[in-house]
Structure formats: C-alpha cells, structure tokens
C-alpha cells in the first residue's frame, strides 16, 4: 500500500475584498474552493489549470504561508494547522518550494553559492557549508566554479537549477514546484523536468508539480488534477487521465496541445471554449464551468456536480455529462 505524505481535506481559501473608508468586507475571492487531494510518498501529483484558478494559492497553503479559511492539511498524518512555531519551523524544512520565475525568486545581489547556502544557515547547518553547497551545485548540474557568480550571469535554465539546489539544501521530503518551467524556453523546459525526475529517484522525493499546460506534466506526473475556478474538475492516475479524459474542460485543454504526428495533427479537433474566465469573486452557479462548456444544459446551471468516480476506478470527475465514459457507467453515475 502506498503511504499518503500529504492530504488536503476540503480546503477553502477565500480572500476578503474590502471596500470603502471603513474597509468593510464586501465579498470574497474564492481562490480555492473545497479542494481535496492526496499525494502518496514518492509520487508526483500534477496540478493543471489556467492562470488564476488557484494553483499558487493552494501551494501557499500547503507550505504554511497562508492559513486556509477552512479545511485541513495533513503532512505525514498530522495537521499542519495545529503546529506551534517550533513545529512549523521543522515543517518548513520538510516541504520546500521551487518558484515559477527564476529571475525574481533569486536575490540579484547574492552569489549563487550564498543563495543555496541561505537555508542551511537559517537552520544552523553550517558544518562544511561550502562543500555541501558545491555538492548541491553538482547535483543539479551546475559547476562548483560558478559559486561566486551572480544570478544575472546565468541563463534562465541555470537560474532555475539554483532555485532547485536551494530547495534541496535541507533534504526535504516534499517539493512543491509552482510552474517551475513556465518562464523557460521550450528546449530548456525538458532539461529541467528531466533533472527533477532524476532527483526524485535519487533522493526519494515527492512532488506537487503545478503547470498551466497539460503537455508539461505528461511525463512527470503519476496523478493529475485539473483545477478550474478554485475547484478540482477531474483527477486520476496519469494513464487513465491521458487515455480517456472525461471532463469537457480537460478535453478542451488536451485538444489545445499540438500533436507530434503530422497526420494526427492535421485531424486534431480543437474544443474552443466560449466566453471569458469568470471572476473567482463571483463564480457561476451550479457547475462553475457551465458558462464556457459546449455541453452545458439547464441542470448544469443549477446543480453542482460532485467529484466522483466515473468510468475507471479512482478516476474522479465533477461533471453531469462526462465524455469518454461507457454508457453503462455514466447511467450508473447519474
Ligand atoms: N493575497 C491575495 N488576496 C486577494 N486575492 C488573491 C490573493 N492571492 C491570490 N488571489 C486571487 O486568487 C485567485 C487565484 O490566484 P492564484 O492562486 O495565484 O492562481 P494561479 O496560481 O492558478 O494562477 C486569483 O483571482 C488571484 O487574483
Ligand atoms: Mg500561480
């Protein structure tokens, strides 16, 4: 049995919108809305969704930077919301983050070696510090000779390697990679993803890998969750997910990926979503996706579909009219 390292239970993160002289709360941005996810040890959970759907907010609640409005987050079976300051300090060691932008996430005035050494210093692990930093640089494919270089002297991909080395410094158990390759050239993206995969095997790491593009996580994710307006729309193991994605939103995202086979590419049919992404402050009633869904009916405007198994075991979908599901199972589930 695989062991759960991280469990997110019905987490909501609603930011108040304050207005007027008295800064009264007028409404809330429902950035994360009832998300439940489990990540097993050694596994990679890919989280995908377009910009603004709540991915980074969820990531920040996992690393303890934001306290969720409600719900619970368990790490190694214990709620991180109950931790005292000292325990939180320990948790911050176990859960590290790699950020999207390798330009702004590194201090431009600090030398690469000092950036990687910073977490070690913060945790007073200063024995053989320089040696340890050089080992980390080697681990992520940087030259130890680059220790004294400043971030701007590195390429984008190399800068992200500095960010990864910094995240690895404290031997974490879980790394949240928040769009780690989105700011990189396509040719460099694969190198960084390969590096993360190699490190996972070597160091027994667990990843939450956030992306806004399904093609990025195809090879790295064991499980995939698709988010839309703060909610999980579909979730399953990678194989079932890419073989028969069920949610119309997922299928729209998949249909946007160009295919490498030129014949198939010629026949590729795009599902184009209508309308704009609604505001998370005023999400649509019923299924939050109904305003853009090509298959939405009256029922979708009124009732909220629950995230439940459709088709393959463990393949969860939040939709009244899932695609690619055998008739038999869709009747059972409706
Ligand atoms: N601190 C905050 N205060 C108010 N709204 C926020 C805050 N952080 C994020 N949001 C809003 O929450 C929504 C989700 O944002 P985010 O989690 O950054 O999305 P993503 O990472 O998927 O692009 C957005 O509408 C964003 O404007
Ligand atoms: Mg983000």
UniProtKB/TrEMBL annotation:
PROSITE patterns: ABC_TRANSPORTER_1, ABC_TRANSPORTER_2. Keywords: ATP-binding, Nucleotide-binding, Transport. It comes from the Bacteria. Residues 8-254 form the ABC transporter domain. It holds the Pfam family ABC_tran. Signal peptide: none annotated. InterPro entries: AAA+_ATPase (IPR003593), ABC_transp_ATP-bind (IPR050319), ABC_transporter-like_ATP-bd (IPR003439), ABC_transporter-like_CS (IPR017871), Oligopep_ABC_C (IPR013563), P-loop_NTPase (IPR027417). One of its GO terms (molecular function) is ATP hydrolysis activity. One of its GO terms (biological process) is peptide transport. Belongs to the ABC transporter superfamily. This is Dipeptide ABC transporter ATP-binding protein. It comes from Oceanobacillus bengalensis.
């Amino acid at each position: 049995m695989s062991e759960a390292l991280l469990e997110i239970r019905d987490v909501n993160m609603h930011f108040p919108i304050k207005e007027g002289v008295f800064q009264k709360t007028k409404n809330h941005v429902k950035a994360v809305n009832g998300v439940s996810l489990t990540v097993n040890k050694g596994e990679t959970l890919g989280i995908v969704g377009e910009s603004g759907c709540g991915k980074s907010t969820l990531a920040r609640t996992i690393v303890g930077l934001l306290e969720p409005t409600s719900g619970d987050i368990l790490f190694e079976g214990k709620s991180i919301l109950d931790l005292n300051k000292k325990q939180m300090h320990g948790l911050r060691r176990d859960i590290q983050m790699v950020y999207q932008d390798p330009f702004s996430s590194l201090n431009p005035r600090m030398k690469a070696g000092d950036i990687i050494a910073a977490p070690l210093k913060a945790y007073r692990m200063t024995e053989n510090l320089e040696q340890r930093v050089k080992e980390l640089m080697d681990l992520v494919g940087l030259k130890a000779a680059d220790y004294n270089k400043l971030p701007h002297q590195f390429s984008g991909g190399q800068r992200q390697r500095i960010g990864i080395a910094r995240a690895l410094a404290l031997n974490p158990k879980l790394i949240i990679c928040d769009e780690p390759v989105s700011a990189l050239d396509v040719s460099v993206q694969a190198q960084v993803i390969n590096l993360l995969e190699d490190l996972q095997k070597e160091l027994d790491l667990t990843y939450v890998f956030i992306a806004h593009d399904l093609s990025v996580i195809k090879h790295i994710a064991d499980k995939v969750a698709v988010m839309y307006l703060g909610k999980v729309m579909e979730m399953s193991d990678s194989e079932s997910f890419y073989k028969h994605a069920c949610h119309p939103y997922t299928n729209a995202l998949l249909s946007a990926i160009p295919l490498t086979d030129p014949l198939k590419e010629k026949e590729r049919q795009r599902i184009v979503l209508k309308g704009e992404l609604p505001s998370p402050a005023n999400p649509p009633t019923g299924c939050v996706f109904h305003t853009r869904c090509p298959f939405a009916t009256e029922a979708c405007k009124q009732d909220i579909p629950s995230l439940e198994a459709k088709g393959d075991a463990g393949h969860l979908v939040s939709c009244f009219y899932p695609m690619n599901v055998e008739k038999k199972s869709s009747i059972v589930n409706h």
